[in-house]
Amino acid sequence: MTRRRRWTAALVALSLVFAASCGSDDSSDEAGGGGGTGDGDSDLTIGFLYVGPKDDFGYNQAAYEGSLAVEAAFPEATILQAENVPETAEAEAAMQDMIDRGADIIFATSFGHLEFAANMAEQNPDVVFLHQGGLVGDDVLDNLGTYFGTVYEPVYTAGVAAGMATETDKLGYVYAFPIPQTLANINAFQLGAASVNPDVETIAISTGSWCDPGTQATATQSLLDQGVDVITQHQDCTKTIIEATEAAGAMSVGYHFDASELAPEGWLTGSEWDWDDLFVQIVQTIVDGDFVGSEFNGDFRVGLQTGDNPFVQSPFGPLVDADTQALIEEIEAGFIDGGSPFAGPVLDQDGEIVWADGEQPTYDEVETMDFFVIGVIGRTD
Fold first, then answer.
1. What pLDDT score was predicted for residue 247?
2. Where are the domain boundaries for CATH 3.40.50.2300 in the chain?
3. β-bridge mates for residue 253, sequence order
4. Contact at 8 Å (CB) between 246 and 230?
5. Is 3-149+275-302 CATH 3.40.50.300?
6. What pTM did the predictor assign?
């Protein structure tokens, strides 16, 4: 018997509990969340784990705002919040605490939480676990799924804005780890910039952490010292880098969240998460008893090609003129029609062809990216 079949009965039972819920529960979760006056979800408890603080102007704040959309859509549900949960066995302890407090659904939102969410899913068949950004492949439990958007599409168009704005032809990229998602973003940013400025290069610096303000500040200063005048990032917390860039009189491209208020002079644009609709849709699918075998029970990925990418372009700053904005809209339309930031020819750092003219990778192929494109200065190991 497959693991998928073993969990089916448990998920069916869970859906019956949700369907039978009635009355009201005005109790609030002590960690932040609470009851309401809606019908049908008074017995529902949903937990959210974040690797950093919920006000980081980045990855965690975007996910937290998605949790608020869930709370609004299911007003009688209890919402549990856990901030600063590391990517270690402490994540399992945090999830177990939520389960002990009645959690039916848990969103583990950091990349390194996947292993621990999968472990907890194996041990707790009555709880549905959702992971943000990971991949579980074909051998998936009935109570486990991952979800993500196509991050590199709006990162490419942000690169276009950066390529048009730079005066030194040097862009900077502060990133956490050389995993496929970060490599794809860095490559897309450079390719977007080079599409309008063939002389541009992107200097990439790894911090070895999703959120270490001290290391971020050091990396930012290093880039500024090398003549970089536009800095972007793939970090969970974005505030330190944007504020340091703004203070130096350089330009910023944001990531994960709209942080334009931190850079009133140097903000170009960015890319950010809008999780509201997707989070609510996932929870509703579980409550309706339809999770098993659904698009969310496995690796759910969407992008501009599918028309529902939750990763979107951030607002433009005053430095991005109308012509550049129109060009970006035109490029986005091409992605919606089936194009890709990685449409060939694409060459790696050594000048070797990865995708030839007329070729382009699928979303799944990009998820395994392990190289830097030509024009990126940095190492992938």
1. 98
2. 3-149+275-302, 152-272+314-377
3. 269
4. no
5. no
6. 0.76
